[in-house]
Amino acid sequence: MTDLIRDRRESRLVEAACEAARAAADGAGIDIRPLDSVGELEAVRRLYEHIWRTGENNPPVTADLLRAMAKAGSYVSGAFDGDRMVGACFGFFSPPARGALHSHIAGVLASTQGRNVGFAMKLHQRAWAMSRGVGEISWTYDPLVRRNAYFNLAKLGADPAEYLPNFYGPMDDDINRADDTDRVLVRWRLETPGVEAACAGRPRQADAAAARAAGAAVALEVSAAGGPLVRYAGTPTVLVGIPGDVEAMRESDPARAADWRGALRDVLGDLLAGGARVRGFDRTGWYIVDRQESE
Q1: Sorted alphabetically, which InterPro entries does this protein's record hold (predicted)?
Q2: Which end of the chain has fewer CB atoms surrounding its CB within 10 Å, N or C?
Q3: Around Cβ 267, how many Cβ atoms within 10 Å?
């Protein structure tokens, strides 16, 4: 591929990414823009404190750190409904040499759920990154939270790369509570056809029932009592289930939530460590995992 052809292709991809981002923001009824003023960044700090319910003595991030990151050229953005900030996202570059961006924290107000504000923010981040020659964005999420698994793997088309046990250590907020902070690291390869399709509103499909009919075995499922039930699954493709609302479980039954954390770590963590690939996530609560590439 000549340099001219490559440049034209990349220009078309960036234009398409920007258009998809604009359409998503319009659909959500919000405006998304980069932030750099002290007042705006202080508003991000307050927004995150409200979302994670941490209090002023333990903010997820400080305004002065965000100010330094913005000055250094990292990504810091806010989503606005009129004059009201309803979401914010920031990330920083990672090796090799600004070729990738690590998205550290993204959050939206609960009152905006159902409007696709988070989706619009990620598409804005993708367009911003692609316009700077970045081909990949990574971030972490809690693999026990069903809506987050669906959002990241299906709606955005990101790929799980690594299971990270207790990655952040203890976190003093009302979301994580006393639970270990296990995370899955995902990689969002921005120019792949699957990601392009997801950003155009065509999520990655995953059908657990079809996988089971094709021979997949269940490695982890919800028991009749609501706890984790681990099963032997020696098939090339396995199904890994998670509970419907682990965040509510952390409040009502923290011991059972801890059992789920350990079971998912043992099952999904071991699969990923052994080279398995997560094909997708069925929103009914199933990771579909291939121990080997599907034919």
Answers
A1: Acyl_CoA_acyltransferase (IPR016181), GNAT_N_AcTrfase_prd (IPR038764)
A2: C
A3: 22
Average predicted confidence (pLDDT) for the chain: 92
Q: Summarize pLDDT for 187-222 with one digit per residue, the tens.
A: 999 999 999 999 999 999 999 999 999 999 999 999
**Whole-prediction pTM:** 0.91
List the chain domain ranges: 3-199, 208-290
Q: CA dihedral defined by 245, 111, 114, 120, rounded to 10 degrees? A: -110
CA distances from 44 to 91, 143, 181 (A): 13, 25, 23
Give just the sign of the alpha carbon dihedral 108, 113, 115, 119.
positive
- 51-57 long-range contacts (CB < 8 A, ≥24 apart) are 51/107, 51/108, 51/109, 51/110, 52/107, 52/173, 52/174, 52/175, 53/173, 53/174, 53/175, 54/172, 54/173, 54/174
Going by DSSP bridges, is the β-strand pair 237-241/217-222 parallel, antiparallel, or unpaired?
A: parallel
Is residue 38 scored above 70 in pLDDT?
yes
Structure tokens given for 205: 């499909």
pLDDT band at 295 (very low <50, low <70, confident <90, very high): very low
Q: Give the C-alpha separation, 43 to 39, whole Å.
A: 6
Q: What percent of the chain has pLDDT over 90?
A: 85
Which residue matches tokens 């009129």? 82
Give backbone dihedrals phi and psi of 211, rounded to 5 degrees, phi first: -65, -40
* Structure tokens belonging to residue 253: 């039954």
CA atoms within 13 A on the CB side of 129: 28
